[in-house]
């Protein structure tokens, strides 16, 4: 993630990191399916059983994208990047539990901190864009990823889109999702307040496509959707 006037990494403290694995699977219905399909889409794009170096941006928390990709493709290796130390520590614990640390380079920081001549076969950016305020920050992280990918390399982008308050029915359904999982009315209101604070999703699928186009990526193919959430595969043009 990029540095902002309010650094989004600051939101992901120890308390949030400790609850992330459970909370994220409630907030995103289909969390594991999205990560599994992301691995399948990258394998379909690169070709199965081919060695690859994959850049995983915003890997903190569950490291689920790495776990899913590693299970599908034993010859892939990963560079996990996240600016939140508590979240990256949590991811490291999951990687250790799945015996994947030997296949993963851990980097506490931002994409632009990586060597400018780094060359990756693919990348993922899952659950990040909506935490970055304004298009400039979103463009910067996409451009930083673009600069470190080989020509034609695929990129998975996934996250919330739509201005939350522009979709009252989806917000209400999201609230019911928490109630379905046992949250009290007070807890649901607290969750609603949290999602409406400190997040700036792209306001449409067209906005996502425009951000990718401006960063040098081609037309994106959507392969997953869940309320506000979408997931797309695109490729670096040059």
Description:
The protein has 238 residues and is of the alpha/beta class. It has a single domain, classed as 3-Layer(aba) Sandwich (Rossmann fold). Helix content is 42%, strand content 18%. The protein has eight helices and seven strands. Strands 3-2-1-4-5-7-6 form a seven-stranded mixed beta sheet, covered by helices on one side. Helix 5 links the parallel strand 4 and strand 5. Helix 2 packs across helix 3 and helix 6 packs across helix 7. The longest helix is centred in the first third of the chain and has 16 residues. The protein is globular, with a radius of gyration of 17 Å. The two termini are 23 Å apart.
Quick take:
The chain is an alpha/beta fold and 238 residues long.
Class of secondary structure makeup: alpha/beta
How many β-strand stretches? 7
What's the CATH C level?
Answer: Alpha Beta
Instruction: Give the low-pLDDT segments.
Output: 1-6
State the distance separating the first and last CA atoms. 23 Å
Shape: globular
The CATH superfamily turns out to be: Vaccinia Virus protein VP39
Instruction: Supply the number of structural domains.
Output: 1
Write the H/E string, N to C.
Answer: HHEHEHEEHEHHHEE
Calculate Rg over CA atoms.
17 Å
Mean pLDDT across the residues is 91
Largest beta sheet, briefly?
7 strands, mixed
Helicity level: 40-55%
* Beta-strand residue percentage: 15-25%
**CATH hierarchy: architecture:** 3-Layer(aba) Sandwich
Alpha plus pi helix count: 8
Strand order of the largest sheet: 3-2-1-4-5-7-6
CATH topology: Rossmann fold
InterPro entries: Methyltransf_12, SAM-dependent_MTases_sf
Enzyme class: transferase
GO biological process, one term: methylation
EC number: 2.1.-.-
